Automatic annotation (TrEMBL):
GO MF assignments: ATP binding
PROSITE patterns: ABC_TRANSPORTER_1, ABC_TRANSPORTER_2
InterPro entries registered for this protein in UniProt: AAA+_ATPase (IPR003593), ABC_transporter-like_ATP-bd (IPR003439), ABC_transporter-like_CS (IPR017871), ABC_transpr_FbpC (IPR015853), ABC_transpr_MalK/UgpC-like (IPR047641), Mo/tungstate-bd_C_term_dom (IPR008995), P-loop_NTPase (IPR027417), Transp-assoc_OB_typ2 (IPR013611)
Keyword S-adenosyl-L-methionine tagged: no
UniProt-listed SUPFAM superfamilies: MOP-like (SSF50331), P-loop containing nucleoside triphosphate hydrolases (SSF52540)
UniProt keyword list: ATP-binding, Cell membrane, Membrane, Nucleotide-binding, Translocase, Transport
Annotated source species: Roseibium polysiphoniae
The organism's taxonomic lineage, starting at the top: Bacteria, Pseudomonadati, Pseudomonadota, Alphaproteobacteria, Hyphomicrobiales
All copies of domain ABC transporter, residue ranges: 3-237
Signal peptide: none
Identification of the protein by name: ABC transporter ATP-binding protein
Family to which this protein belongs: Belongs to the ABC transporter superfamily.
Amino acid sequence: MTMRLSSVRKTFGSHAALDDVSLEIDTGDFFVVLGPSGCGKSTLLRAIAGLEPIDSGDIHLAGTQVAGKGLHQPPEARNVGVVFQSYALWPHMSVRQNVAFPLETAKRAGTYVTARTNNCLETVELTPFADRKPADLSGGQRQRVALARCLAQGAKTVLMDEPLANLDPHLRSAMEAELAEFHKKSGSTTLFITHDQREAMALADKVALMWDGKVLQADTPEGLYDRPVNERVAGFIGRSTILSGEILAVRGERALVSLAGHAVEIPCPQDTEIGMARIIVRPEHVRTTGEDRDLETVVDRVTYRGGFWEANVRLDGQEQAVLVNIPHKAAAGDSLAISIDGGWVLPA
Ligand SMILES: Nc1ncnc2c1ncn2[C@@H]1O[C@H](COP(=O)(O)OP(=O)(O)OP(=O)(O)O)[C@@H](O)[C@H]1O
């Protein structure tokens, strides 16, 4: 385990920016903290880096306690590399000097500094730009300088605070691929912060979804999407509809559910009980073709999504409209027969 946070709390005035946060991050993982603006992501990163003292709880890095009751190790003693959204490069230094700087201040031998700097510049493919100043680089290239500098330090733990937020969408996805490659090559444990769920899903081994200072769920991207622990997680990750259904029978982690009078078998948490429950249904669980389309719905609204239309359809007795992807345009008021062949029973 590289990072362990136990019941960490940090308040600003009466507001808890971190409210009893516990997390375990394995060595070598690419761990993403995802959440809306103001939920406490940056405070979490700053607490781990040593830039923000915590009120209570404790933090261990690589088996050593770095924060806790009466203990606050300063950032330089924690051996973590931090990459901020703003890159924080020195404008008067060349790319090479920026990367070499932390090694020089650590008083490493000149030959080592040169070799290591060259190697890190090679890793992020910036060798041809080594003598340029940051001002003469694109945003993505500047980002790579910041990564190379972090890599040069040899930090086995890397913390990144929205490092791609300033980039245009095209460069963003190119940098995502580079980040994944960087992570693989360096073997570092990475904690990456973002409010962009697509980015989180694309990069993460594990994702912690934060909300109002709390971690709602820490799981694999698939776990978060397929088995959300509550309605808030279900609503934040991907598109979904919450329906009410009646659990008729449970066998292991499968439940037979009655939805609008039709039985469907779907996955459920282990301790699911017979009775009424909330069911999350995603567009890919809804079919508009095939023999078994026995749920009659009425189209409420249709939105073109590029290549297909997303329809909100009304199902008798349900508060929320069901989201369905359809291959052709439909109009409000049209009737549409559907079948539901998947979903997830939300924990009670
Ligand atoms: N130094 C501070 N003094 C007072 N309140 C603060 C301070 N730093 C953060 N906060 C508050 O703590 C909460 C969490 O802030 P934080 O910066 O961690 O959120 P975030 O999830 O990183 O947000 P964003 O995505 O907008 O950067 C916010 O309500 C914020 O206003």
